Amino acid sequence: MKEFSLNGKWELLKEGKGEVIPVSVPGCVHTDLLAAGKIDAPFYRDNEEKLMWIGETDWLYRREFDFPAELKEKDKVLLRCEGLDTLTTIYINGQEIGRTDNMYRFWEFDVKDIIKSGKNLIEIYFHAPLPYLRKKDEEFYLPAWSVGDHRLHSGGWLRKQPSNFGWDWGPKLVTSGIWRDIKILAYDVARINDIHILQDHSKEGVVELEINTTLDRMETGKLTLKYDLSYRGETIFKKEEKISGKKANVKFIVKNPQLWWPNGLGDQPLYHLQVELSKDEKLLDFEEKRIGLRTLKLVTEDDEWGQSFKFAINGVDFFAKGANWIPADTFVSRLTAEDYRHLLEDAAKANMNMIRVWGGGIYEDDVFYEICDELGLCVWQDFMFACGTYPSFDKDFMENVRIEAIQNVKRIRHHACVALWCGNNEIEQGIAADEWDAEKVKMSWDDYKKLFDKLLPEVVQKFDPERDYWPGSPHSPKGDREDFYNPNWGDVHVWDVWHGKKPFEWYRNCNHRFISEFGFQSFPEPRTVDSYTITDDRNITSYVMEHHQRSGIGNTTIIQYMLDWFRLPISFENVLWVSQILQGLGVKYAVEHWRRSMPRVMGALYWQLNDCWPVASWSSLDYYGRWKALHYMAKKFYAPLLISGVEDNKKGTVEIHITSDRLEEVQGDVNWSLTTVNGKEVDSGVVIVEITPGKNQLIETLDFADKVNEYGIRNLIVWLELKVDGKTVSDNYVFFARPKHMELSDPGITCGVKKAGNNKYCVDLTAERPALWTWLELKDIDARLSDNFFHLRPGKRVSVILEPEKELSLSEIKGKIIVRSLIDTYK
């Protein structure tokens, strides 16, 4: 099979007439206009408001191409569009060849009799999405949350990225364009249509693989399929088989299989499968897939608390640690493999083992899942439905969704990382009801079930039977389905902190089985804020700063919690930094409690990992990939071995807990120290522990009642450290009072810098007195840091590896390094 790419140079015309703008495909109208200098940067200040007309406008993409005569002579010639966003009419040489209405599908059109050898003209007319949706509203209005606030429209009638119309973290920039590859396929005789790989792990020490191959054929007769499975270049299985029909099945045994494990639990070995189709020794087509051998199941079984919700890898239960993923750019067409790799590698570096691909975005690019396979990041995969109502009463809509679901299930099901298919985001959280009600944003359970209890699970069962399906997130599988916040079963979205304004300490009373959303906002760091503001904007109450805050309660809530915990910062920049410390502290409270609560609680996925534009949000990685304080803290509270403490102010005690995600028992030393806020040690101890795998252990309860009475709760800090084989694997702290009431002194930080490799530097830090949430940065340049927002205490040196984004000398590093801690934000 031959591919003729139509990527590259195209022309763009507003409403199909007037000025001709040279553009590049794949892309979208916004990025094309930006590249041509026709619009200002959409993310800068409030420029977004000037660009609303783009989603109200029709656009024409066109190009000429020379089609080779030898391809024209093939038996089959197809135009294949991997992604069109969204409503299009397609013409070749002036003749309409098809229409599209789903950005999540690939589309194929037979153009054998239309295309010519030599010059051809292809035109794709994009119909404006917003006028179309308003017209559909006149037929039947589909309500959704937050329309008229941070959403332009529910988008329910259109199979288009829901967050494209705006969200409480994203802009309202409604796109159109050829957002994925476009090509012409030309082939003779037959092609490979589908490969489905099934795994049987029922026999110990071996895995049986079953490969089902489906062909598209134009002629009868015998063809040959060749199978080759290899691991690290060594052939494991090889077979040649004749096929007369459209389907073939082959089974074989893999002995001594190298099993795939999530990040932190083991390695991620990947086998390479190649399938070739030929006739009379002439290659017709081939496909390659990388697969991991594993079982990965959602386990819901009755237990002492109700019913479990946990994942098991290769028969071993594990605590899911991770975050929710949103589209990594407002303009998803410009994302690169490098963009995906940076974000996902940073998730793995923070000891995450699961990413939830949220249902208001897109089914991600193939490279996303390939990287997750490599990194051991399990993927909770939503179907693309979120926070609104959908016309499941409409047969055409349902058939469109059915094809979308089949295509995407078949596309990504071979990936080892995919853990679960989930029907939607938050529709069971108060939207599904007895009857439709536009004013109250309700759709009927009868219509809900047609889509999420019937169509989607049937697709998964038929095309990916080895994976579990969950109808929605959150979902209560027992009792009253509208009881979506039941602590005894199912998954939940916990927003009592933030939306409910509960204190961070409230998390310690929350024992739901699996928390698939929770979180707290922060501002991005000053360097990111500088990218979208001018000097006069740099006050969090300015119009531009509030424009880059899409949660209606956002800035007010950040400041309210900030004043609960910290002294009022003395500058705009310090407000930004303290908001990040605050965010990290809140999420830390939650995760540490839930990890201590295993096996009752078996998963925590915070909202959210990443951003799609520079904004105040719940992310731990900002739009430019800069680590917020939360991400550095996540690296510690998601560590495979975690030491944590729980204080009881009334009793003057501190419980020491160790939580292990390891698969094997290890021995460790717990070192604890009680000091004043000025660093004077008043008590200390060491406990040798046998750390049980896959469990939480209460190691000891320390009684500090006398010391609390002597020094007072505002003057004490408990320091915790866990060592294994002499190396610190986890450290932590306990306060009896909130930091705003602790009388910190100038910490007297000493900073030394030395070379540590090619453009790498080791920064050694010590302090004469406790320095809480110490952070480093380089003036005017980004840098990667092995640790940040850590505590310094007397007698303990902290070493940080620093890698500037461009090559700098040792003297330049010393001249640019800035070291600050909490006290610098208010003194």
Which range does the strand content fall in?
Answer: 35-45%
Distance between the termini: 69 Å
**Regions with little confidence, pLDDT below 50 for 5+ residues:** none
Q: Main sheet?
A: 6 strands, antiparallel
Number of helices: 14
Strand order of the largest sheet: 3-2-4-10-7-8
- Helix fraction, binned, reads 10-25%
Describe this structure as you would to a colleague.
- It is a single chain.
- By secondary structure, the chain is α+β, with helices and mostly antiparallel strands.
- It has 14 helices and 48 strands.
- Helix 6 runs parallel beside helix 7.
- It starts with a strand and ends in a 7-residue tail after the last strand.
- 44% of the residues are buried.
Keywords:
827 residues, globular, alpha+beta, 18% helix, six-stranded parallel beta sheet, 36% strand
How would the blueprint of this fold be written?
Elements: E1 2-5, E2 8-14, E3 21-25, H1 29-35, E4 59-67, H2 69-72, E5 76-81, E6 84-85, E7 87-92, E8 95-101, E9 107-110, E10 118-126, H3 129-139, E11 177-178, E12 182-187, E13 190-200, E14 206-217, E15 223-231, E16 234-243, E17 247-255, E18 271-279, E19 282-291, E20 296-299, E21 302-303, E22 306-307, E23 310-313, E24 316-318, E25 320-325, H4 337-349, E26 354-357, H5 366-375, E27 378-382, H6 395-412, E28 418-422, E29 432-433, E30 443-444, H7 445-463, E31 468-470, E32 492-493, E33 515-517, H8 526-530, H9 543-547, H10 554-565, H11 572-596, E34 603-606, H12 629-637, E35 641-648, E36 653-660, E37 666-676, E38 681-691, E39 696-703, H13 705-711, E40 716-724, E41 727-735, E42 749-757, E43 760-767, E44 771-778, E45 783-785, E46 790-792, E47 798-804, H14 810-816, E48 817-820
Helix pairs in contact: 4-5, 6-7, 11-12
